[in-house]
Design brief:
The structure is a single chain. By secondary structure, this protein is an alpha+beta fold. It folds into 4 domains: 6-150, Beta-Lactamase (2-Layer Sandwich); 169-275, Beta-Lactamase, CATH 3.30.450.20; 281-365, Helix Hairpins (Orthogonal Bundle); 373-531, Heat Shock Protein 90. The chain contains 14 helices and 18 strands. It has a 5-stranded antiparallel β-sheet, with helices on both faces. A 5-stranded antiparallel β-sheet has the order 7-6-10-9-8, with helices on both faces. Strand 14 and strand 15 form a beta hairpin. Helix 10 runs antiparallel to helix 11 (334-364) and helix 11 (334-364) crosses helix 14 (497-507). The protein starts with 30 loop residues before the first helix and ends in an 8-residue tail after the last strand. The protein binds adenosine-5'-diphosphate. Adenosine-5'-diphosphate is lined by residues 432, 436-437, 440, 464, 466-469, 477, 483-486, 493-499, 522.
């Protein structure tokens, strides 16, 4: 029944007795063994000297053997015991026999008649010893615990499964218990706890207040209150709070859990805590962006109204100045004519600036009507050059218009490059670039206007060999009102032209890029969607 035979008096042999031996302590009243058998437990008695084991019939019956099938010998019982469990069984008995353990206790596997292994839990005590201390008699019980072992195995399997799953979820899975007296503890914390909070799960199991102490001071009362509320109403707990991680970061955590009240009034939550710091940062950025956009809209609105309001009186000033210049009835003196000329010049500069500003605010607000069509590029380039020629002549700069390249096989002979854009607005943008090429140049300098078809579309380049732009200034180039190094140069300008040109080109689905070297010149390239090749003889086309 129990252990392998050994030499020496302390070792109790195994047994397999099938009948109640005479003199059994239970033979007088069979009710006790019967009651125990009903509860899955059988009793036995072992006479060490005679090696007789008695009262084993219930035990063998539990295993499905007929009484005659299992001899009441140690060898027979030993043969039934799982070989891996025998040594442990011996050791348990020896510990008790030597007086090191108050009882003999062991769990082992034993073969049932149907060939399956059953788990037994056995307990016993030596009740009689010889004068020299040798064990003489031992009483004990054995209980079939196969079902319990199976349940334990299942529970273990579930626990391992939960452990594996919990390890793969990004946050921390937990169970938290709060008793009616208000004290709380984490009954379970998954190992992700360490990465999330910097606290070892075992530490949190013992002391839940560590978590609260790591919580940002301002958030603690809110966390406590949210738990109490969930406990009172038995409603899901949800809370976002900041936690000081030992790595020095302050993290936003979001917790959620479902409460369940136990019979003792304590509440057990099953929940999950995750790191939502990134979400918070994104939300912060979104709010900042929304505020910046609102501010930008307000600025655009203001500029748009201002420029509109300024234009009306300015037109009146210019109109009356012109009237003074041409009034034949009261002709102006030479000095007066010069002064009125200056008024007109300054007024026109102001008007140009206001018009550009108005355009810029409109395009930024999406209120500028851009109508794209397909048209021949060459005539437009010619018009731009003609428009800027007087300014170039005055500055001693030559403008060279190069014949559009890249007609290639896609463009039949006699045809010219076609582009898709808003013709008027493209002319405005190109005129602006050409004007800059002339303005930020030197006497004898050149501005080249060229166009070619590329993989990206049509690329129109305005290249000058003038002042160039320092590398450090290039980032700020398209910012409105930023005149870079030209603020005090005496060259007339507003700092709106490039910002407006880029906004216009982008509205047409294109882009402006720049390459420049200080002292060597700059090339501004406008890329636009390609249009179908145009007939060179189309109206407005090249003569
Ligand atoms: P503006 O010419 O009225 O100042 P822009 O927006 O057209 O305004 O240009 C902004 C600034 O960029 C100019 O003030 C000048 O410093 C620089 N810039 C623009 N085009 C050129 C160029 N072709 N060569 C050198 N600098 C240029």
């Amino acid at each position: 029944m129990m252990c392998a035979a050994r030499d020496g008096d302390l070792v109790r042999p195994a047994a397999g007795a099938v009948a109640t031996a005479p003199g059994s302590p239970f033979s007088g009243d069979p009710r006790l063994p019967q009651a125990l058998a009903g509860a899955g437990t059988s009793v036995w008695e072992w006479h060490v000297d005679t090696d007789v084991l008695s009262d084993l019939d219930e035990g063998t019956a539990m295993l499905g053997y007929a009484q005659a099938e299992v001899e009441s010998t140690q060898a027979a019982w030993d043969a039934l015991m799982h070989p891996d469990d025998r040594a442990g069984n011996d050791a348990a008995y020896e510990r008790h026999a030597r007086g090191e353990a108050a009882t003999y206790e062991h769990e082992y596997r034993i073969k049932a008649r149907d060939g399956s292994w059953r788990w037994m839990s056995e307990r016993g005590r030596i009740v009689e010893r010889a004068a020299d201390g040798r064990p003489l008699r031992m009483l004990g019980t054995q209980t079939d615990i196969t079902e319990r072992k199976r349940a334990e195995g299942l529970a273990q399997e579930f626990a391992e499964r939960l452990h594996k799953i919990a390890r793969h979820v990004p946050g921390m899975v937990f169970q938290f218990v709060r008793t009616v007296d208000g004290s709380g503890r984490f009954a379970y914390v998954s190992e992700r706890c360490l990465a999330l909070t910097g606290i070892e799960p075992q530490v949190l199991n013992v002391d839940a207040t560590i978590m609260l102490r790591a919580t940002e001071r301002e958030d603690r009362a809110r966390v406590r209150e949210s738990i109490s509320r969930s406990m009172r109403r038995l409603r899901p707990w949800r809370c976002e709070f900041r936690l000081h991680h030992p790595d020095g970061s302050l993290r936003w955590l979001r917790g959620s859990a479902t409460p369940q009240r136990g019979v003792d009034g304590a509440v057990l939550w099953h929940g999950y805590i995750e790191d939502v710091s990134e979400l918070h940062e994104l939300e912060h950025a979104r709010l900042a962006r929304t505020a910046a956009e609102a501010a930008s809209r307000a600025k655009t609105e203001f500029l748009s109204r201002m420029s509109h309001e300024l234009r009306t009186p300015l037109n009146a000033v210019l109109g009356f100045a012109q009237l003074l210049q041409i009034d034949a009835a009261e002709p102006l003196g030479t000095r007066q004519r010069r002064h009125v000329g200056l008024i007109r010049e300054s007024g026109e500069h102001l008007l140009r600036m206001i018009s550009e500003l108005l355009d810029l605010t409109r395009v930024e607000a999406g209120r500028l009507d851009i109508v794209t069509t397909e048209f021949a590029l060459a005539p437009l380039l010619r018009e731009c050059v003609d428009m800027l020629q007087p300014q170039a002549d005055a500055a001693g700069v030559s403008i060279v218009l190069e014949a559009p390249e890249g007609a290639g096989p896609a463009v039949p002979a006699g045809a010219t490059l076609g582009v898709r854009a808003d013709r008027t607005r493209l002319k405005q943008a190109l005129a602006n670039l050409l004007s800059n090429g002339v303005k930020y140049n030197r006497r004898g300098g050149t501005v080249r206007l060229s166009a070619k078809a590329s993989r990206k579309g049509i690329v129109i380049a305005v290249a000058d060999d003038g002042a160039g732009i320092a590398a450090k200034d290039l980032k700020a180039l398209f910012q409105p009102f930023n005149r870079l190094a030209q603020h005090h140069s005496g060259i007339e300008g507003t700092g709106i032209g490039l910002a407006l040109s880029r906004a216009l080109v982008r509205e047409m689905g294109g882009e402006i890029d720049v390459r420049s070297r200080l002292g060597e010149g700059s090339t501004f390239s406008v890329t636009l969607p390609r249009g179908a090749p145009r007939d060179a003889a189309e109206p407005g086309g090249p003569a």
